[in-house]
């Protein structure tokens, strides 16, 4: 920022020390102190340069101009130069006393230009610009502006060749929408503006490398290996270089996503968690990536010493780009690499006394900040329409011009919130970049363009990409009062036809289909029924038969790597593993001492969490682990009470006998798999208690989970949402559990004081009804009945997009449908 201020002031033969007095004359007294501080900084800067035998470029230019003059030029001709700063004027005068300025304007307007052919701001302040209303098109957002540009080109109907048409861009955010619209329309467009370097693959790769070197988090590593150019390099070369890496590199996305979903690992140091096979493949990815980035290893060093290592990394990733430049994307990549090389080259020769000592991440940050202003230019073809920036349009010879983004703040540029040089201070200093001077320059340019084009279309947008309103350019309103009123009405009013029809389809878009494309995909025909089912399969089918087929028969699943905390399933799994170890440890499970049980549970929680999430879990995960502790403390007290009542733990994670099945009268039985969290037995009565742990926030009753009701419904109103506990009892008897059986939940809800045992009070008729419901589920699955349950809606639905759950929302409803409520 300060360098930019220095350059702008130097262009007017000013220094920081010249500003305080001007500011205080405008009663900007606080500005005086700030500019004196900047002057002190500038003086120190000059002294540092002098100590290295160097000179500030602007100071060198001034010194050179003063030494010049012994052999002046014969003459200088200025062509179409609308503005010059003081330094430029001084240089011109120093090298020649014969100056000819050619101005693109009629002689009658000579008083609006000075001796150098530059605009006189005051002369253009109230000048009218002769535009026809038909030349002005009002559009909505950037996409609509791009479409209007394509319409304007299409209206030429082939009457002009590509090199006779130019698309002008007044807003830097519009080239992308225009390129997309042109692609739809089958129109080839070349952007002379170029592609900004921050939007190219090499720049973004170095950004990802810098983020990873600066913050060794899983997220930054995942973002790095997701970079398409790095992925292409890995898949092209790594397997051949390292046979052990083959599968790891091929399946890196799934491996990383699964790893993060399981472990929520915040920071990476090469110590992977989990299964040995997966760890080996992840180490292969790690090894290959770090091999590519090895040149960036090492301690902090002078900035210039990092130039060669950065080039080495770029060369390793893009070693084949020069052989692939037939594709536009690869050509841009090559140009971006060359632009980055030039930026690095500028730093390599800097005096070490001027170089900061930085690590690799710091060096990359500095290189990228300088490269951010560079562009990469694509190749030009003869059949392309040129896309130029506003200031290039005056000298462009194309007879047909479509200018997009004719909005205030863009054309003319508006300086509204400069923290150092507000517009009033700019005018007082006589700077070229002031609102008055910019308006005069752009008013002249638009007038000249208007008189030198056979066809001119000016498109002004109503909103930007974020939906913020955009005022039309003041240049479109530089007219008489009657025309001004008419134009403002047109700019502020949406026509009735436009309001009724909405936005038209893009040029080149396919015609509307005869039916909606928002269709739930049809399942593959002939899906084979399962040879066996798990207890949870019945709940999945009862929830939605279609989703059951997607998940259980086709095998679809969702894996994410953007979680910041444990989801409900992972939280429950953590609690289950701790309680499972307690129930399986014969040295503690029959203890009646609450303190001993509590100590065991909390120590086990720490051990399980360390194995699953590493030594440094994510902050939210650490908090969730801490939130589980009071629930386990309360469980310890209740467990001691249950033991005092005579209940002993007999089985933990009890697996059904392999022969366990659901009888299907008249059909083949259905083998059923399952595992019961815990089975207790009473020492005196010999009664059995089948228990399932539940860690939900509210600690639902068995009736709520199985029927969606707070109370047990009558048998004629019975509807099953889950069959877990009835099936447990049915199948446990086939696995050797005889006698009286109770079914229960042990709930560990958010409020630890509510940790308790919840008994399911079903009668024989309820069990019979449940088993018949299970048999009907099996029949339906075998019959291939997988209808979509359109009433199902949940924020945890992995298949919402496939099922079009949120594609449309009924009037008056929120996205996602009404919240689920538990009935009476």
Structural account:
With 824 residues, the chain is an alpha/beta fold. It is built from 29 helices and 20 strands. It has a six-stranded parallel beta sheet with strand order 3-12-11-4-10-5, covered by helices on one side. α13 packs across α14 and α15 (307-317) runs antiparallel to α16. It starts with a helix and ends in a 42-residue tail after the last helix.
Keywords:
44% helix; 29 helices; six-stranded parallel β-sheet; disordered C terminus; five-stranded mixed β-sheet; 824 residues; alpha/beta
**Quick one: how many beta strands?**
20
The value of Rg in angstroms is: 37 Å
Strand fraction equals 5-15%
Instruction: Give the strand order of the largest sheet, numbering strands 1, 2, ... along the chain.
Output: 3-12-11-4-10-5
Q: Please give the share of residues in helix.
A: 40-55%
**Main β-sheet description:** 6 strands, parallel
Helix tally equals 29
Which spans have pLDDT < 50 for at least 5 consecutive residues?
810-824
What's the rounded overall pLDDT mean? Answer: 87
Characterize the overall form: elongated
**End-to-end separation:** 66 Å
Give a brief description:
It contains 29 helices and 20 strands.
How are the SSEs ordered, and which strands pair?
Layout: H1 2-10, H2 19-25, H3 29-51, H4 57-67, E1 76-79, H5 86-95, E2 99-102, H6 121-124, E3 136-139, H7 142-155, E4 165-169, H8 175-185, E5 189-191, E6 195-196, H9 201-214, H10 218-226, H11 228-241, H12 246-250, H13 252-263, H14 276-292, E7 301-302, H15 307-317, H16 328-348, E8 357-358, H17 360-371, E9 375-376, E10 385-389, E11 400-404, H18 423-429, H19 435-451, E12 455-461, H20 481-492, H21 496-501, E13 533-534, H22 535-543, H23 545-554, H24 568-584, H25 594-613, H26 619-644, E14 647-655, E15 661-662, E16 670-673, E17 675-682, E18 688-694, H27 702-707, H28 724-733, E19 741-747, E20 756-759, H29 764-782
Parallel strand pairs: 1-2, 3-12, 4-10, 4-11, 5-10, 11-12, 13-16, 18-19
Antiparallel strand pairs: 6-9, 7-8, 14-17, 15-16, 17-18, 19-20
Helix pairs in contact: 2-3, 7-8, 9-10, 9-17, 10-13, 13-14, 15-16, 16-17, 22-23, 24-25, 25-26
């Amino acid at each position: 920022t300060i360098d930019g201020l220095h350059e702008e002031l130097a262009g007017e033969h000013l220094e920081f020390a010249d500003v305080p007095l001007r500011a205080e004359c405008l009663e900007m007294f606080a500005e005086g102190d700030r500019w004196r501080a900047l002057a002190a900084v500038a003086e120190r800067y000059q002294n540092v340069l002098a100590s290295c035998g160097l000179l500030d470029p602007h100071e060198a230019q001034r010194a050179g101009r003063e030494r010049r003059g012994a052999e002046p030029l014969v003459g200088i001709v200025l062509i179409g130069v609308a503005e010059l700063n003081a330094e430029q004027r001084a240089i011109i005068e120093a090298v020649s006393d014969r100056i000819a300025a050619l101005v693109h304007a009629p002689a009658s307007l000579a008083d609006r230009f000075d001796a150098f052919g530059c605009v006189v701001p005051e002369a253009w302040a109230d000048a009218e610009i002769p535009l026809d209303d038909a030349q002005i098109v009002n559009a909505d957002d950037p996409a609509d502006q791009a479409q209007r540009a394509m319409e304007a080109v299409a209206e030429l109907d082939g009457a002009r060749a590509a090199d006779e048409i130019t698309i002008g861009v007044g807003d830097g955010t519009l080239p992308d929408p225009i390129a997309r619209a042109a692609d739809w329309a089958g129109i080839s467009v070349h952007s002379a503006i170029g592609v900004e370097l921050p939007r190219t693959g090499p720049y973004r790769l170095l950004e990802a490398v810098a983020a990873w070197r600066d913050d060794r988090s899983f997220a930054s590593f995942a973002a790095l290996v997701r970079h398409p150019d790095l992925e292409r390099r890995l898949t092209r070369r790594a397997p051949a270089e390292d046979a052990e890496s083959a599968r790891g590199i091929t399946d890196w996305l799934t491996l990383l996503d699964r790893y993060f979903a399981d472990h929520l690992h915040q920071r990476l140091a090469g110590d992977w968690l989990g299964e040995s096979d997966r760890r080996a493949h992840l180490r292969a990815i790690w090894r290959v990536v770090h091999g590519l980035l090895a040149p960036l290893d090492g301690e902090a060093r002078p900035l210039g010493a990092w130039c060669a290592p950065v080039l080495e990394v770029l060369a390793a990733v893009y070693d084949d780009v020069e052989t692939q430049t037939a594709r536009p994307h690869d050509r841009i990549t090559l140009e971006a690499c060359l632009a980055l090389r030039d930026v690095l080259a500028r730093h390599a020769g800097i005096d070490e006394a001027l170089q900061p000592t930085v690590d690799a991440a710091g060096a990359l940050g500095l290189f990228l900040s300088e490269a951010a202003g560079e562009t990469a230019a694509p190749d030009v073809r003869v059949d392309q329409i040129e896309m130029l920036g506003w200031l290039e349009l005056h000298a462009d010879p194309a007879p047909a011009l479509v200018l997009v983004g004719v909005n205030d703040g863009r054309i003319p540029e508006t300086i509204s919130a400069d923290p150092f040089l507000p517009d009033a201070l700019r005018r007082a200093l006589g700077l070229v970049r002031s609102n008055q001077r910019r308006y005069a320059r752009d008013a002249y340019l638009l007038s000249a363009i208007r008189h030198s084009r056979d066809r001119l279309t000016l498109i002004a947008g109503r909103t930007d990409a974020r939906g913020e309103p955009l005022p039309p350019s003041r240049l479109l309103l530089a007219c008489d009062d009657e025309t001004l009123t008419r134009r403002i009405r047109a700019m502020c009013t949406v026509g009735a036809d436009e309001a009724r029809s909405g936005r038209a389809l893009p040029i080149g878009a396919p015609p509307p289909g005869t039916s909606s494309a928002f269709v739930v995909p049809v399942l593959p025909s002939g899906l084979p029924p399962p040879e066996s089912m798990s207890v949870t399969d019945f709940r999945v089918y009862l929830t939605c038969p279609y989703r059951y087929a997607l998940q259980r028969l086709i095998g679809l699943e969702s894996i994410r790597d953007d979680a910041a905390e444990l989801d409900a399933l992972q939280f429950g799994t953590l609690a289950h593993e701790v309680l499972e170890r307690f129930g399986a440890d014969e040295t503690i499970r029959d203890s009646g001492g609450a303190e001993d049980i509590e100590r065991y549970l909390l120590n086990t929680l720490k051990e399980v969490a360390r194995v699953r999430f590493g030594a440094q879990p994510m902050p939210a995960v650490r908090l969730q682990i801490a939130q589980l502790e009071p629930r386990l403390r309360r469980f310890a007290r209740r467990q001691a009470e249950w033991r005092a009542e005579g209940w002993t733990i007999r089985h933990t994670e009890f697996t059904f006998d392999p022969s366990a099945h659901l009888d299907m009268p008249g059909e083949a039985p259905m083998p059923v798999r399952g595992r019961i969290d815990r089975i207790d037995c009473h020492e005196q009565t010999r009664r059995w208690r089948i228990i399932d742990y539940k860690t939900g926030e509210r600690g639902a009753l068995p009736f709520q989970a199985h029927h969606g009701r707070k109370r047990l419904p009558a048998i004629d109103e019975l509807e099953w949402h889950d069959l877990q506990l009835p099936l447990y009892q049915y199948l446990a008897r086939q696995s050797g559990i005889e006698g009286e059986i109770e079914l229960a939940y042990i709930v560990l809800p958010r409020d630890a004081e509510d940790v308790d045992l919840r008994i399911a009070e079903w009668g024989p008729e309820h069990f019979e009804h449940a088993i018949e419901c299970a048999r009907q589920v099996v029949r339906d699955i075998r019959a291939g009945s997988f209808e979509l349950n359109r009433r199902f809606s949940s924020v945890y639905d992995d298949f919402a997009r496939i099922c079009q759950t949120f594609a449309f929302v009924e009037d008056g409803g929120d996205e996602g449908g009404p919240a689920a409520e538990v009935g009476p």
